[in-house]
Write a structure and sequence with these properties.
Length: 311
């Protein structure tokens, strides 16, 4: 579950230097002050305070709409499309073409990583599994949160810390949540891999709620009258959770990207980059066509043949 301090304490600055919420009492009034007298002697109405929902919907005092978070691998009918602050990448936009620059809320396909993966059918399993690996790389590079079912085997595949374990080399840690606390009909235990936001800086967590449905009946576990949820209800992210995840991502400030020594990358025909580290099974294949290597001293990618070309 979420660390106790994440439930019992209000968001504040934690032990790490990460981006937190706007400072309380920050002066947003401009040069002249919004609560001073106007030309006709009347006082201007002060701006209403913002909450996570206002920020997620991109609302600002000047009514401008600002894209602050990228949502990757969303459904075509995703609730995120109602949030103006979210730059939503669904199947039509193809999240593989996303070029970065914003913190991320990632919902990569999970059927090949979940408990019932032996029954999953995918037209291109290797490609679909790579989407989740790419999502981990994006969260580590730009900060944000990746959502997957509890006990997802993606954690072992990418070396992600399980709930309750220390952060990894990227500052990433894992929280376990119950989606019913945000309005899902079923309990739906979920793991969130978060990079760039200390547990103390999370938005407030809603109070505990009880599920009204089940995803799949379990032998020996009474249903207590709860109905099996539909496929659509099972897959959709509750609006309150979507707003909360966007707020989490907006508070994320990742550490400098640190690929492992020896990492290389190659650009595919569709314009996307494939990164390979020495422990990856496809490392030798990517190395043969790689054009850039990870320079740890500069924390950036450099052309492999740069020195030769300069000479």
């Amino acid at each position: 579950m979420l660390p106790m301090q994440a439930r019992d304490r209000q968001p504040g600055r934690g032990d790490q230097d990460v981006a937190g919420p706007d400072a309380a009492g920050a002066d947003l009034r401009g040069d002249h002050g919004s609560d001073g007298p106007q030309a006709d002697g009347r006082r201007a109405k002060p701006a209403a305070p913002q909450g996570p929902a206002d920020k997620a919907r991109g609302r600002r005092a000047d009514s401008a709409v600002v894209k602050t978070v990228a949502v990757l691998f969303a459904r075509r009918d995703s609730v995120y499309k109602t949030l103006d602050a979210a730059d939503v990448w669904d199947e039509d936009r193809d999240a593989r073409l996303w070029t970065g620059g914003l913190p991320v809320v990632a919902h990569p396909p999970c059927r090949l990583w979940a408990k019932l993966r032996q029954f999953a059918k995918a037209s291109d399993p290797a490609m679909e599994m790579q989407l989740a690996r790419d999502a981990v790389a994006h969260v580590r590079q730009f900060g944000g949160v990746l959502e997957h079912p509890a006990e997802s085997t993606l954690w072992a595949d990418r070396g992600l810390p399980k709930p309750g374990r220390a952060p990894d080399d990227f500052g990433g840690w894992t929280a376990q949540i119950r989606q019913c606390d945000w309005g899902h009909k079923a309990e739906k235990l979920t793991w969130l891999y978060i990079v760039g936001c200390h547990p103390d800086n999370l938005p407030p967590v809603p109070p505990r709620a009880e599920p009204v449905g089940v995803i799949k009946p379990q032998r020996g576990v009474p249903r207590d009258g709860r109905k099996i949820v539909t496929k659509a209800d099972r897959e959709h992210t509750p609006e309150k959770l979507a707003i909360w995840l966007v707020e989490v991502a907006s508070r994320c400030k990742p550490q400098a990207q640190r690929w492992r020594a020896g990492a290389v990358r190659a650009k595919a025909e569709d314009g996307t980059w494939q990164v390979a580290e020495p422990h990856d099974p496809w490392y030798s294949t990517v190395t043969m066509v790689a054009t850039e290597w990870w320079d740890q001293s500069l924390a950036g990618w450099r052309p492999i043949f740069e020195d030769a070309e300069a000479a």
